[in-house]
Design brief:
By secondary structure, this protein is of the alpha/beta class. It is built from 17 helices and 23 strands. The protein folds into three domains: 191 residues, Alpha-D-Glucose-1,6-Bisphosphate, subunit A, domain 3 (Alpha-D-Glucose-1,6-Bisphosphate, Chain A, domain 3, 3-Layer(aba) Sandwich); 235 residues, Alpha-D-Glucose-1,6-Bisphosphate, Chain A, domain 3, CATH 3.40.120; 100 residues, TATA-Binding Protein. A seven-stranded mixed beta sheet has the order 1-2-6-5-3-4-7, with helices on both faces. The relative contact order is 0.10. Its cofactor is Mg(2+). It comes from Sinomonas cellulolyticus.
Amino acid sequence: MANRAGTVALPSDLVDITALLDAYYDVSPDVGDPGQRVAFGTSGHRGSSLKGSFNEKHIAAITQAIVEYRAGQGIAGPLFLAKDTHALSEPATNTALEVLAANGVQVLVDARHGYTPTPSASHAILKYNAGRPEDDRGRADGIVVTPSHNPPADGGFKYNPPHGGPADTDATGWIAKRANELLEADLSGVKRVPLADALAADTTGQFDFLSSYVDDLPLVVDIDAIRNAGVRIGADPMGGASVDYWGEIGERHHLDLTVVNPTVDPQWAFMTLDWDEKIRMDCSSPFAMASLIQKVSGGAGYDIATGNDADADRHGIVTPDAGLMNPNHYLSVAIDYLYRHRSGWRPDTVVGKTLVSSSMIDRVAEGLGKKLVEVPVGFKWFVPGLLSGQGAFGGEESAGASFVKRDGSVWTTDKDGILLDLLASEIRAVTGQSPSELYRGLTAKYGAPSYARIDAAASREQKARLGALSADDVAATELAGEPITAKLTEAPGNGAKIGGLKVTTENAWFAARPSGTEDVYKIYAESFKGDEHLKQVQAEAKALVDSVIG
């Protein structure tokens, strides 16, 4: 049977929303099952009510744990509560509000009773906290209810402290531990009031997330240049939280902008299937983005077309000359453009990237005369730099990035897919070239890398050994015919553990990391010597890792 990746979902692919919502309330998690306990990954706790991993008790416990955490940290300001369009986001938001109100926490919900992208929540937190010292008890923080690009049956719940970005492992570790204690006690210790009482509570207020974010966009993107150049933009919210934002961006800033598909459907029936025939709102996937790519190639007339995932923290850039851009390619172009066109940024700015992002970024940074700061996977590592303005840009290979305002001050400390989408239009307006055309110019200057990620089977024990490796465990001196120049188990930019291994040569590298959800490890690899050399790097990487983890 032919793979259906890139084709429109069939009725048999769609989740039963009624069953999903019933399970949220009816299924009680088995705390003896590790898969049904609270566990924070790089972007919060995720799971599905149908699997007993994202249910009412999880959210009540996590919210109570966040209440206790923020009290312990001296945070007594408002908590911004945001949600995306996943079916489980609405009941989870209600549960959270019931617990927050019972605990007397001041909560600000969306004044439009709509959806809130992750970057809009981050922007709101930072704007409220501007000028407040770190020990100010009146600082705000936030909760974003979203599993990001995950399939329709999933739910997600993440905490953003007063710095506006993803909580660090100290915070999420404490919250998860306390939440699991509350689950084990069958929620004894969780305060809660009925939803009607929570909505009517004096501590529950409203905030216009959309206006706060959309009105401030000229501070970070050259909106005038986009408007004056008449760039024709096609924006696809992909059924996510950015759906109302794109229309307002076009209207308020008088842009030639079309919202390609304004439909919100918790089943995502309009989506094309991803590589594994699942519905996944991954705007970096050519399969999930097939409809938009087809519109552009079919002569829709857009100079730039864009996509976002469900909480709009990821970006997808489609150009008429190249289709969907590889995220690594676009990050390289964005960095090269921004550091040449932002005169208000600090002169000592550095370039931030995760260690599994393309080495093209290394070469671009060197060409700009800028220091490169390479950090582990996870956007939380970019928060200090974005706050100070020295780390003016931070980006991940998974199509997540943000950068500072035109004056060098902080914009968001979480990934901002809307921002990176608009930047593509600014680039087109200012340079007269598409980002894909500019990338071809970079390859002419720095070489054309081949990049890929593959998965390899690994047991839980093998994954644990991989995560605990030291450089001394790797005896090899060569990789794919080149001398090894570095064996890394800590990120060179900040010395933090990478939870795996990265090996580099002059023209290639690979990184191996255990999956947090499956019995596999991931091998990221890149070569500036072509596709065949990349395959050699991948094969030797797998053999090397397997020999070390047993």
